[in-house]
Amino acid sequence: MSGKLELDPVTVRKARSLARKAGRPIVTLAKKHTTVAVERATLRLAGLEGADPDGSPWVNLLADAVRADVGLEHGVSLPVWDALLRGEADDLSMLAQKAAAGSVRFRLPEGKDATRASSASRRQVATGVRRIDARRKERDRMIKRVGDAPQKPWIYLIVATGDIYEDIPQAQQAAREGADVIAVIRSTGQSLLDYVPEGATREGFAGTYATQENFRLMRAALDESSKELGRYVRLTNYASGLCMPEIAALAGMERLDMMLNDSMYGILFRDINPIRTFVDQRFSRQVHARAGIIINTGEDNYLTTDDAVDAAHTVTTSQLLNEYFAKEAGLEDWQLGLGHAFEINPDIPDSFRLELAHAMLARDLFPNAPLKWMPPTRHMTGDVFKGYLLDGFFNLVGALTGQGILLVGMMTEAVVTPWLSDRDLALQNVRYVMNAAGNLHEDFRPAPDGFIANRARQVLAETIDLLEQIVHDSDSAGDPPLLAAIADGTFGLMKRPADAGRGLEGVAKKSSAYYNPASEILEEK
Amino acid sequence: MSTVIRPYGDTTGDGMVQLSFTLPMAHSKVAEGAAAQLANKMGMDPALVVHAKPMGPDFTFFVVYGRVHHLVDPSKVEVVERDYPLLTPKEVNATVKSTLRRRLVVVGGCIGTDAHTVGIDAILNIKGFAGEKGLEYYRELKVVNLGAQVSVPQLVDRARAEKADAVLVSQVVTQRDAHLLNTREMSAAFRESYPADRRPLLVVGGPRFDESMADELGVDRVFARGTTPGEVASFIVHRIVSGKAS
Fold this sequence. Notes:
The structure holds 2 protein chains of 2 kinds.
Chain A: H1 9-31, E1 33-35, H2 36-45, H3 58-70, H4 77-85, H5 92-101, H6 111-146, E2 154-159, H7 164-177, E3 181-184, H8 212-229, E4 234-238, H9 244-253, E5 258-260, H10 265-270, H11 274-291, E6 294-296, H12 300-305, H13 312-328, E7 336-337, E8 339-341, H14 351-365, E9 372-374, H15 384-400, E10 405-407, H16 420-437, H17 451-471, H18 481-487, E11 507-509, H19 517-524
Parallel strand pairs in A: 2-3, 2-10, 3-4, 4-5, 5-6, 6-7, 8-9, 9-10
Antiparallel strand pairs in A: 1-11
Helix pairs in contact in A: 1-11, 1-13, 1-17, 2-3, 2-6, 2-9, 3-5, 4-6, 6-19, 7-8, 9-11, 13-17, 14-15, 14-17, 15-16
Chain B: E1 16-23, H1 29-41, E2 44-55, E3 59-68, H2 89-99, E4 104-110, H3 118-124, E5 141-145, H4 152-161, E6 166-170, H5 178-193, E7 201-205, H6 214-217, E8 221-223, H7 229-241
Parallel strand pairs in B: 4-5, 4-6, 6-7, 7-8
Antiparallel strand pairs in B: 1-3, 2-3
Helix pairs in contact in B: 2-7, 4-5
């Protein structure tokens, strides 16, 4: 069903090559830096778990101690495994405890000591990567045994009670009602924590903390549901914020199936330092690639802050950048749940045709990506009846454009957290549209010079203009053009300079001695 | 002259209303009877159960239409009005632009040991809260978010350095009334550091605050759970523009 808009292939190639041009210097920059979160993720892959009695994770305490002694620029692996080889402790966990108590001194090993430390670290980190590989095979096996989601788009439903033990029965019920994908919304503010909380958690704000134990509990519960229902139910969480690489590693090790992971969301919407974000993101996407996890990008956010018609091209621009960064990190087309949303003001004329044009553009530009279709939120009022109709039209666009992942819209959006009946009515809405019009795309072809095709071409042209503007941007510090563009407010109203933002103190330029076994293993494939 | 009215279905005075709800029981004739019973008890008579749909084995969803006999007297309705107008981001920007002729500066943070930036971030971050964008989204507001665990002297210094028009403080932790003690300490420090007529507007918020405590805490406004960025922005603009930062 691809290519209905008959986009000019030269124009499409130009858009992609501009995205590559904007993205490549960022990748070069990312390769030259490391962050505390990347180093902690490496320790997690090596098997370091748990936290001290105050709840500070051992990975944080160990990484901080190493940093205090030798700095962050060499990575933590050489100093840590050097200390183990010197007999400072029997294992990582004991080393972390001693380091936290201040009874270990770290050094940067040289010569043969460095070689021994690097191979020891590689051996141990490889066990974590093998665990990720095993979890991926386990997913494939389960899908073969119990069956996959029977249809596309996959039905994506959200749970968010704040208490993992409340989330579990809700998620299982949602799966029974028809969800193919369960997303557990994180507690507000977790993205700004510079550590991953530990253990099963029962108190969150408008969501549940992402922790390794919560991941494990929910995945086990959904495995039960998958067997009961005869179809594999996928689990989603968020690899975003200051701990993106660690969460990605935990997700891989606990067999999560999809992760929200956007290239610029943290920078623009959470004021996280741009370099921190791009370094963390590259590592986490390498982990996702290895784990067979599908990423979901966050383009819907552009449309909740800006006008959905005027800013349509910012969505396309972001999709192209997300695609470039994802592929560079090793993700394949089937893993790219590029986001877009139904957020045009329903009062403007032809709003449905505009929505259809934008969604078809995404479909035609990324024919092999699953695409994540997000429901209306901005123009949902307390009028639940109108909201139900809007959700129906949203579903119709989804059916007409072959979306891979459909986040189910609730008529009580902006009114209450969804009731049992809201979810049931929402799923009836989806089923009616898919049953009535799921194959309509076979008959539907927009007129070559009609409103829809012209609008799609216009958005693509505006995308190219914006990408041109980005690749020609510059700042006095000589930063890569995309960083300069982010700094001067090219994206929405947010000005995010490369030398500011949260988490900047956790970034270091790599020294010539830098070594990270996780990056080494992940880049071999 | 007060007129008494009734709900209007298709004829004046017919009193017709609609209602939907879920009962935690399997669908059956008894369940439909139970739905009618609920509607009767709510004052619908007759009550017509027009739709009953099972949702899984344990729940049934109902739609009920029926007549109510209650009378409504609009002249007896009492409402508590907000003491400031709710403005859209556009109106906030326009008001600031036309009256201050510069950007309005807002400094915010969590004071004391409180590391919960949920509240301040919901109000300040562009991501916002409850479908509303945070104050960072407002072009005419300059937002300085100091984050968590800011000391009171730091907050005062930064407010002075930024020439803050308003200071927003969020407090989530309430152990041993920490939120109240911290807030009093903060307002006292500002009172000490500024002449009365120059002091920035002081606003605190958090899930456990009582909105009527502003005077007692020495601040200009207390916001409780569920406050949206738009309400905070509207309040700040209203107070600063009308020059009533007392």
